[in-house]
Specification:
Strand 11 and strand 12 form a beta hairpin. This protein has twelve helices and 14 strands. The protein is an alpha+beta fold. The termini are far apart. It has three domains: 160 residues, no CATH class; 48 residues, no CATH class; 115 residues, no CATH class.
């Protein structure tokens, strides 16, 4: 199968955010981005892998033993074995004696640390198992995390591709890519197209590679942390949908041109109407209250999802640090913070 997604009892071991179905139409559609825990569970990817000694068997599968009855073991080799919830086991591959198992959950948790996220952040877009359990992949949505790369002229792509293997060949891999991982081919394509790829072998040193990964991938979590502080401040700013403060934000982000035609004025009125509607829905003021954070989110949501334009163009503008869209978001933030 071209996708190489593992099928277990007729169910594909993959989960994805329902905003876009993968080309192979396999897996569990999840409502929006999810936490690592939820995505791993839905994709049946949160299994344990252990290493065992390798014994010699005959063609029937019976162990070949020494004259004293002890099994014949291969000293310089180990086997990786998946432990299933029902108590059964799946042999995955043979590995070297220095191989250290890195569970799928451990690798994805490490990736979240690299980008400055926490286990509870709903930022996982896809998650899946390949080759009968031998490989694992996931896509973390960096747009949701609002991670900024070091260097004002640098560019950050949409996803952090996460890859893990239990076959002794596939390294722990993190790659910043614009390609959404949904199968083996897209995993390979994402790695090939990435300008920055971090890899670590399955050894005892893998756990100490967080800072190295951030340096290689050129990620800085300082901006993300400062944004969290900003969000806390915005939550404390009370703003109603029909207040002078709200109108000031709207005027700053969507200014009225002096020589605007009737059509231009009508278009602007329609934009304001949509923004107010988005502001009052359950994802913003309806869930977080009438405050600066809800106002900011409403403007971001409009710019990313509601304004006119092709979906691909809106996505690219949202990822471009120098785009008009990004500048409008920063303007909204600047005005809102002036109320604090």
């Amino acid at each position: 199968m071209a996708h190489e997604i593992e099928i277990s009892n007729g169910i594909a071991r993959m989960a994805y955010a329902d905003r876009e179905a993968p080309w192979h139409k396999l897996g569990i559609a999840m409502k929006g981005l999810q936490t690592a825990e939820a995505m791993l569970a839905a994709a049946q990817a949160d299994f344990d892998v252990v290493t065992t000694r390798v014994a010699v068997v005959d063609d029937t599968g019976e162990p070949i033993r020494n004259p004293d009855g002890t099994p014949i073991l291969v000293d310089d080799s180990r086997a990786t074995v998946r432990v299933n919830p029902d108590g059964t086991f799946d042999a995955l591959s043979t590995v070297g004696t220095r191989y250290v198992v890195q569970q799928n959950r451990e690798v994805i948790d490490r990736a979240l640390l690299v980008v400055g996220a926490s286990k509870g952040d709903a930022v996982i877009d896809t998650c899946g198992v390949l080759h009968g359990g031998r490989e694992f992949f996931s896509s973390i949505d960096l747009g949701q995390l609002i991670i900024d790369p070091r260097g004002i002229n640098d560019k950050i792509d949409r996803y952090l591709l996460v890859r893990n293997g239990h076959d002794g060949k596939t390294a722990i891999t993190f790659a910043n890519t614009s390609i959404r991982a949904v199968c083996k081919n897209t995993v390979i394509a994402g790695m090939a197209s990435s300008r920055r790829v971090f890899t670590a072998r399955h050894t005892r040193n893998a756990d100490s590679a967080i800072e190295e990964a951030q340096e290689i991938l050129n990620f800085s979590t300082e901006w993300a942390k400062s944004f969290q502080e900003t969000a806390t401040t915005l939550l404390g700013i009370k703003i109603g949908a029909n207040t002078p403060q709200f109108q000031r934000v709207i005027d700053g982000v969507f200014p009225q041109e002096r020589d605007a035609t009737k059509r231009m004025k009508k278009n602007r009125d329609e934009i304001i109407s949509v923004v107010k509607s988005v502001y009052e829905n359950e994802r913003n003021a309806g869930g977080y209250g009438y405050n600066g954070w809800s106002t900011y989110n409403a403007i971001v949501e409009y710019l990313d999802h509601y304004r006119e334009g092709k979906v691909s163009e809106r996505a690219l503008a949202s990822m471009d640090n120098n785009s008009w869209v990004t500048q409008r978001k920063l303007k909204a933030q600047e005005i809102l913070l002036s109320f604090s």
